[in-house]
Amino acid sequence: MLANGFDIDGVIHVGGGRVGIRPGPMDVIITGRSFEEKEETEKFLRNNGINNKVFYNDIPYDKKTRETSGIHKAKTLNMLLDKGIKIEYFYEDDFIQKEMILNYGPKDLKIIFVDNPWMGKENARHPVED
């Protein structure tokens, strides 16, 4: 199966509770967000009609870094490939995570770098308002 992959912050979520690039129905979301952020993340996605499979970082929120988030994404991309799901394009806005994905992910993956200077790259909670 061929699909695309998407980061959330800076790609799907562009700030202020707004959606930027929307994944297609067969695409996957691979976020650096911790599994501890699942509830708020799912709420944002579902409120915006996005029902794709989401792969969360298994590192606790206060321990994750941009580097560990990028490595998580690379490992997930490799795992999906091993299961027969080839991610052709991955949308990413963080240059550090992009480098981790290029270094440790599938070799023929194409990364579309989304230059979003308005979205912070630090560890930050993303509360969702009703």
Overview features:
single chain, 130 residues, alpha/beta, five-stranded parallel beta sheet, 7 strands, 28% helix
What can you see in these coordinates?
The chain is α/β, with parallel strands linked by helices. Helices cover 28% and strands 25% of the residues. The protein contains three helices and seven strands, in the order ββββαβαβαβ. Strands 5-4-1-6-7 form a five-stranded parallel sheet, with helices on one face. Strand 4, helix 1 and strand 5 form a beta-alpha-beta unit. Helix 2 packs parallel to helix 3. The longest helix has 17 residues. The model has no long low-confidence stretch (mean pLDDT 92).
Question: Beta-sheet strand percentage?
Answer: 25-35%
Number of strands: 7
Overall radius of gyration: 13 Å
The best one-word shape is: globular
Flag low-confidence runs: none
Helicity level: 25-40%
Distance between the termini: 36 Å
What pattern of helices and strands is seen along the backbone?
A: EEEEHEHEHE
User: What value does the average pLDDT take?
Assistant: 92
Largest β-sheet summary: 5 strands, parallel
Structural class comes to: alpha/beta
User: What strand line-up does the widest sheet have?
Assistant: 5-4-1-6-7
Number of alpha- plus pi-helical segments: 3
Question: Topology, please?
Answer:
Layout: E1 2-6, E2 13-15, E3 18-19, E4 28-34, H1 38-47, E5 53-57, H2 66-82, E6 86-92, H3 95-104, E7 110-113
Parallel strand pairs: 1-4, 1-6, 4-5, 6-7
Antiparallel strand pairs: 2-3
Helix pairs in contact: 2-3
